[in-house]
Structures are given as C-alpha cells and as structure tokens.
Design goal:
The complex is a heterodimer of chains A (about 350) and B (about 525). Chain A is of the alpha+beta class and about 350 residues long. Chain A is built from 11 helices and 16 strands. Chain A folds into 2 domains: about 5-205, CV3147-like domain (CV3147-like fold); about 225-360, Beta Barrel (CV3147-like), CATH 2.40.390. Chain B has 13 helices and 24 strands. In chain B, strands 11, 12, 13, 16, 19, 20 and 21 form a 7-stranded mixed sheet that branches. Chain B has a 6-stranded mixed sheet with strand order 3-2-1-4-9-10, with helices on both faces. Chain B has a 4-stranded parallel sheet with strand order 6-5-7-8, with helices on both faces. The chains are: A alpha+beta (about 350), B alpha/beta (about 525).
C-alpha cells in the first residue's frame, strides 16, 4: 500500500520534525516552503513503507549540509538536489530507486521531500536516526557497517563531487570542508543501501510518526486538549518538568550552538545543548541524556522550541522520549552518547533508568 | 515649542509641547484625506494656546497610513521584485508565499538575475548588465513604477544592489523609484525582500502623503522641519519617509507605549493596554520598545521588520466570563459590550460586569449585577490579575523588578496592586498619549551585520560596529554629545567557520532642534 504526501501534510511534518529535532534543526519554515513549492510544481510525493522495499532496491539518503543560517539567506535552487543523485547513479552504475531521510529532525525532514518531488522518486517512510544529530556519520546505518560513501554533493553552481572515504568520520571531515568552500549550504546524498540493508538499518515508520506528532499537537490545540500531553502519548515518552525559563547561556567561542538553559518550577531543571538538547538534570540529578530525545515545548500550545528560540520568561514543559533502541548499544552510545559530547555521565533513558549498555 | 501629532485609524491626537511639558492636547476624528484632520488639529491647538509659526521648532507625526494602505491593498504602485543570486535561490522566487490578492494589487512581477554573495563575501556570480537591462525593458513594458532589489547576503556586502540599481535607473529613468533590501532588512533573504517589496509598493503613496502633510503644516506658517515616527519611536525626516515608508509600520503601538511611559515619568517599564477583547503587553527598555526576535507577519506577508514585541492575551472589558469556572475570555462581545453586557441590559456575563459588581467601574446599571456572589467576583478578578501578571512576567527579560503602567478602557479590570509586580501606574494624560509619544524628539542609527570576528579581535570588531551606529545617528540629526548605544546584541552563528558573529547595535540621541 502506498500513500502520498501533498502540500497539506507539510506543516504537520515540519512541526513534528521540530519535535524530533530535540532543540536542533533551526527554523522549519524554509524547508517546508521548499517542499510545498516542489510538490506544487512536480506533484505529490509517493511514500512507501520500509518493509515493502524489494531486496534489490537502491536507497540513498538526501540531506542539506552546511549552516541553517546560510540557507535562510542563500536559498536553494533545487537544481542542486538533482546533481548528487545523478552523480550517485553514475558512480554506482545503476539508478537510484528510493530516497530516504537521513534524519527526521529539522530541515532535513523536508529537503528529501522536495528532492523526491523534483526527481519523481518514491520516499521511504523511515530515516537514519529517528531524531536529529549534528554530524553526518551519526546514523544507524553506520552501526551496520554501511558506508556513507560514495557520498555525492553539489552546490547551486553545478559543482558536483563524489567522495570515497575510508570511514564515515572521514566523510564528515572532508564533506564539511567542501561545504564551507562551496558556500555553506550544499545538498548531499550518501549511504547507498540495498533494499535489504535499508530494511535492517533504518528507523521504520519515522516519517509518518513525525506527521502524526505534528498533527496531534495541532488537533489537540484545536480541540482544547492538552497538546503537550498528546505529544507525550504519541511519542511514548514522559513529561520531565514544567516551569519558566529563567536563564539561557550561550557559549560564544565554538562553531556550534552550545550552551544551557535553566528552567525554574518545582526545583531547577538545567538543559544542556549543543545544537540538540543533550542532558537534562533536576537540581543535579540527571533525568535523561542523549541519545534519548529531550524536547522543550511551549507550556500551553505544545509548539516545539528550538535552542535558538529559548529565552527568559517562556513557560515551557520539557519531555523526554525514547530513541531507537539501537542507539543504546555500546556502539551506539560510543557514537552519540553523553561521552561523545564531553559529558562524563552514563546514558540515562527517558524513563530515568541507566541505559543497559552503559551499566 | 514643538508639536506632536498621531494620526490613527479613528482619532487624530495633537499636543503642543515645551520641552517635555505638555502645554495643551487635543483629540479629533481622523478625516479620510488625513491632511485636513491635521489642519484641524493644529488649529485646535492654536485656539487653546496661541503661538506664532516661527515659534514651532519641529513637528513630529505618527501615522498608521502606510500599514493601512497595505492591509487594505489600496493605492499600491505596480511593483517589480528583482533578486540577484542566480544560480542560487531559484526554488523560491520573489513573492513566493504571498497572498494572491496582494500580488494582484501590486501588479507585482518577479525577476531573478545573477549576482549575490556567499556568507563570507565571495561572489556567487558576477552581475550581468545585459540581463539586468533586459529585465528593465520588460518592467517598462509592463508599466512597473517601483522596483525592489534584493541580493543574497547584501547585509554583508551591499554593493551589488547599488550597482544593479544604477543599471536599472539608466533604463527606467528617474520616475521609477528603486528600494534596496540592505537598507531595509537584515539576514533572512525572503523576509528582507518581502519588506523591500512592500516599501517599494508604498513609495508613490509616501510622496503624496508627505506632500500633503507638509502643505498642511506650512499652511499654518510653520516653517520648522517635519519628522515622522519610526517603528522604534525614533524620528525620520521627510526625505527619509519618501524613501522608506515601511519604517512607519509599527509607530502606532510604539507611540502609545512611549506616551504611556513618559506621562508616567518612566523610561523602563511594562505597559499593559487593556482594550475590549485583549490586553496587549509591551516592554520599554530605556524608553524604547523591546523588539521581536522572530519573523512578523504583516497583511499575511512574512517579514523581519523590527516590530515592538507585543503579547496579546484574551482578556478585555468585553471578555465573556464562564459562570461555572470563572474563567475569562478569550471570547469577547467586543463592540457589542454596550448592548450585551449585563449592566447594559444584555444577557452575557462579561469582565466589565464583574468589575462593576466589585465597585471598580461605574458604568451601566450596577443593580443588574447585584446578584453575583461576591466570592465569585473576587475569584474572577484575582484570576484576571494573576494571568495578566504572568503575561507581564513572560515578557520581561530578567527577574529584576520592573514598574508596570496600566492604560486603556479595560484597565478597570486590574487592581492597583498586581501580583509579582506590586503597585501599578495609571497615567492621567493618557487620552493624548500617542501624540505625546510621537513628540519625543529622538533620532537613531542602527547597524546589523554578520562579521568574522578574528580571535583576540572581538573588542575591536564590536567597537567598530558601535562607532558606525553612532555616526548613523549623528547623520540622522542627533546632537553628537547626546548619542548613546541603547541596544547591543551579539549572536554567534553555528556551523560557520571563522567565528562568524552577527552584531546588532542601535545608537540613539536627542534631535538637534531648530537645525537642519
């Protein structure tokens, strides 16, 4: 059974993507507008369930790499999403059959929709993380030994490159340099997988879950039901804390949006972030950490708030929701656990328990 | 002496000021042609406090005329939007996401051309003069009378917008006005471009309005310079208004807030304006409204104007009160208050009825609310005070105490002591507060740019940007010794190399009166 995503579904998807962005991903407006424009021009996008992929399918991820701040100024042309796909097909010697999202957080949940519309390819209802993370190699396929390379990338001028690297961290390092040289807003396509590999390595149904959460918040608000509660229910998570933002500190020395927010309610909750929220502690007791999702929502409307949008006086509720269980393996935690981001803490799950592999 | 005038949608207020003292204030209905309303207002001032034309050193006018023209889609010039940035940006051309009706009202046409810069100032592609001339000829053929030019990363380097404007002017002649995006907005191409297109569409109207205002003032033998209020409450001269009418858009709420504050003798305070349907809460810091950090929609168009940050909550004099729960609003009887509220013989329990029952307001027939349980009345009013106080707390930027000024017809709903904040100020001269707000004689300069801050050179970079803002303020007419930095913001940009940082500085000084 196939479904389609039309213009009507994009706003819900973008809201859901901001929830799964767990503080990262930036303003979803441009990504949503791009997807809508591409659908208006090329027609609705076919979405296929992960399990329906044939073994010999050729699936690649599509994403924007660079700085979200640049993308709101140097808008994409969408020609640059075609370049990497064509290069990928040439390099692989066979046509790409399906597109997948690398992450369901932020703008990279809507860019693949624009790409699928422009290329006339089906989109898989799945993604590589089940959330957002800041670096390219931080996807579940890496845990399955699937290479990011060949990784094709393109700018709006028509420059195209294909990287073949020794491991996925090298792909990130070299692609990041190229991204800066090409103007800090490029389209990338990588992680070529067979249908069989994709069925194993991707997070199943995450695109639809994103739309469901976005729609759930909207509908709860419209029918005056608790929108945050609805989000918690849909995510299978837990509400950690409710309170008022009393302080937001941002470091000014690194290339990442690093910092922390203090939220006062019954005690003081501190949320530490580096693009995404990483650690939430209540008066020193850690409640949850990456890789589970720590999400800040407006107290009443349930609208997700990004780290850039946090400011004094906001009434917010902080919720945690489970990441894909594979992130809680020893290999998963080594890549995206608290230790990787410089916190000497065992990974703590959304429900407060210590992650199995970290004990 | 100087004169402050506020032309609102309903009323035209005017005040005659001597320094910061209000000599006399008048209130009139706004006339359809604006000009005659101003003529009448000045006549009324003169009738109450005689003055000679040459005694007036300046006339400050706040008007909602331009934003109303946009909202009503009236008197907008046929406008072209030209964007420099190819081959980038093609997926989202100018006017994308605009309401169809406004695109039609502008007879708007969108053009894409080569040009634009990368984030670090490298060119995306060179300008193609022949391409621009061809676009210009097409604009001419379609009767375009005003052009908005935007260019990718023009806030980092504006020179391509300037060059493109020169080329277009050669083809189009002097009668076509050209607006450049770097003069109008900040980073965020679509939002800045939208604001520039709106500005372009209003340029013809701006010329007519300024001519009309000038004629009205000169007719009274007043030869002093005329200024208009900008979004932040600082002033701009006639010539500036002709070029940037869009800068007047938020002057209404700004003048109201500034007027309320100055009549209370405060510069930093929260202002609560309680109307019939909502309570609007804004913050003044050092006499200037705290501005929104996010995008603002104007007439359905997403822009990044600096607008005063106003939080509206659904509590007003006409708000409907739930008899069961005691909750107030957001539904309101609005302008039907005088027929639907209990005290006016209606059948709906409104917030005004509760205020009358508590003895806080004397309107209508109090006997119609005598049956209300005093405990219920107290609970409703406590809840209103609590919610308003929470909203003010949401607006302030730090836990430091801040004085609160309460104005508006619905302000009877609020007690004299507000939870968290304590005693509130209720200014007396509030009827003409907008005009008093307009008459505050300050001018400013603002700089907003992305800069690569080299290690160890942060202080230098900041000092340079501050100096630039000060020079802009002086160029706008501020007395140099009075100029101070009133706003400074530094935001590092993630994922960009070289510590790219967005610096925003606003400098403001007192207007040099009597000088031009």
């Amino acid at each position: 059974m196939t479904r389609t995503i039309g213009i009507d579904g994009i706003d819900d998807l973008a809201r859901g993507a901001a929830v799964f962005g767990a503080g990262g991903g930036g303003d979803p407006y441009i990504g949503a507008l791009l997807a809508k424009q591409a659908i208006a021009r090329h027609g609705a996008v076919e979405v296929v369930p992960l399990r329906s992929l044939p073994d010999d399918a050729c699936v690649v991820t599509v994403a924007m790499m660079g700085a979200p701040t640049v993308m709101v100024e140097k808008l994409p042309s969408l020609d640059e999403v075609v370049g990497p796909l064509t290069a990928m097909s040439t390099y692989l010697g066979r046509p790409v059959t399906h597109i997948a999202c690398a992450e369901v957080g932020g703008v990279n949940s809507t860019i693949p929709i624009a790409a699928a519309a422009a290329l006339g390819l089906p989109l898989v209802d799945a993604d590589g993380m089940g959330r957002a993370f800041p670096e390219l190699q931080m996807v579940l396929p890496t845990l399955y030994g699937i290479d990011a390379s060949p990784l094709a990338f393109s700018d709006e001028k028509g420059n195209v490159g294909v990287l073949q690297t020794v491991d996925n961290s090298w792909t990130e390092r070299i692609a990041r340099v190229a991204a800066v040289e090409m103007g800090c807003s490029i389209m990338i396509s990588g992680f070529p997988m067979t249908g069989a590999q994709a069925r194993e390595a991707l997070v199943d149904g995450s695109l639809q879950q994103c739309i469901d959460v976005g729609a759930g918040i909207r509908e709860a608000r419209a029918s005056k039901v608790d929108a945050v509660g609805r989000a918690v229910e849909l995510l299978g998570g837990r509400e950690l804390f409710a309170g008022k933002v009393v302080d937001v500190e941002r470091a000014t020395t690194t290339g990442f949006a690093r910092g922390s927010a203090r939220i006062e309610g019954e005690g003081t909750l501190t949320v530490r972030f580096q693009n995404e929220h990483l650690v939430a502690d209540l008066d020193g007791d850690v409640l949850a950490t990456t890789p589970d999702l720590i999400i800040v929502l407006d107290h009443d409307s349930g609208e997700p708030i990004t780290t850039e949008g946090l400011r004094y006086g906001q009434r917010v509720r902080v919720i945690a929701s489970p990441a894909d269980p594979r992130w809680h393996t020893a290999e998963g935690l080594a890549m995206v656990g608290p230790g990787y981001f410089g916190y000497d803490l065992p990974a703590r799950r959304f429900d407060g328990t210590i992650s199995e592999a970290a004990r | 002496m100087h004169i402050g005038i506020d032309v609102g949608g309903t009323n035209t207020d005017a005040v005659l000021m001597d320094g910061t003292t209000t000599l006399v204030g008048v209130k009139h209905s706004t006339t359809p042609d604006v000009t005659s309303g101003i003529v009448q207002a000045i006549e009324a001032l003169r009738a109450q406090h005689g003055f000679e034309g040459e005694q007036i050193q300046a006339v400050m006018i706040g008007t909602t005329h331009f934003i109303n023209a946009l909202v009503q889609a009236k008197r907008l010039a046929p406008t072209a939007a030209l964007r420099l940035g190819l081959p980038a940006t093609r997926a989202l051309p100018p006017l994308v996401d605009w309401p169809e009706a406004l695109v039609e009202a502008l007879e708007a046409r969108a053009y894409l051309a080569h040009g634009g810069y990368e984030f670090d100032g490298r060119p995306i592609s060179p300008l193609d003069p022949e391409e621009l001339r061809e676009h210009a000829r097409d604009m001419k053929a379609h009767g375009i009378r005003s052009v908005a030019i935007s260019s990718v990363f023009s806030p980092v380097n504006p020179d391509l917008e300037v060059q493109a404007a020169e080329i277009l002017a050669e083809e189009l002649g002097d009668s076509v006005a050209i607006s450049l995006s770097h003069d109008i907005g900040r980073i965020g191409l679509l939002e800045r471009e939208n604001a520039t297109i709106i500005n372009a569409a209003l340029r013809e109207l701006a010329g007519e309005i300024v001519d009309g205002l000038t004629a009205a003032v000169r007719a009274h033998g007043i030869d002093a310079p005329i200024f208009l209020s900008q979004n932040d409450g600082t002033l701009m001269d006639e010539d500036f208004v002709r070029r940037y009418p869009v800068a007047t858009f938020a002057s209404g709420p700004t003048n109201s807030m500034r007027g309320a504050a100055v009549t209370s003798g405060l510069a930093t305070c929260a202002v609560i304006d309680v109307g019939g349907t909502t309570a609007d809460i804004g913050l003044l810091i050092g006499g200037f409204p705290r501005e929104t950090a996010n995008e603002v929609k104007v007439a359905g168009i997403r822009t990044n104007f600096r607008m005063p940050d106003v939080l509206s909550i659904g509590i007003g004099g006409g708000s409907i009160v739930d008899l069961e729960t005691g909750e107030v609003g957001p539904e309101s009887v609005g302008y039907r208050l005088t027929t639907e509220a209990l005290v006016f013989g209606g059948s709906t329990l409104t917030a005004t009825d509760v205020a009358v029952a508590a003895g806080r307001a004397q309107v209508g027939d109090p006997s119609k609310v005598a049956h209300l349980d005093p405990a219920f009345v107290e609970r409703v009013l406590d809840r209103i005070a609590e919610r308003v106080a929470e909203a003010v707390d949401r607006m302030r930027t730090s836990p430091d105490p801040i004085p609160v000024v309460v104005v508006g017809g619905g302000s009877v709903l609020l007690p004299d002591e507000l939870p968290i904040f304590g005693a509130v100020h209720r200014p007396e001269n509030y009827a003409v507060a907008n005009a008093i707000g307009a008459s505050i004689a300050q001018v400013g300069g603002e700089v907003d740019k992305v800069t690569a801050v080299e290690p160890g050179k942060r202080d230098e970079a900041i000092a340079a940007v501050k100096q630039e803002a000060v020079e802009k303020a002086v160029a706008a007419g501020a007395r140099p010794e009075s100029v101070a930095i009133v706003d400074f913001d530094e935001v590092p940009i993630p994922y960009l190399p070289g510590n790219a940082t967005r610096l925003r500085v606003k400098a403001v000084g007192d207007l040099e009166m009597g000088a031009r």
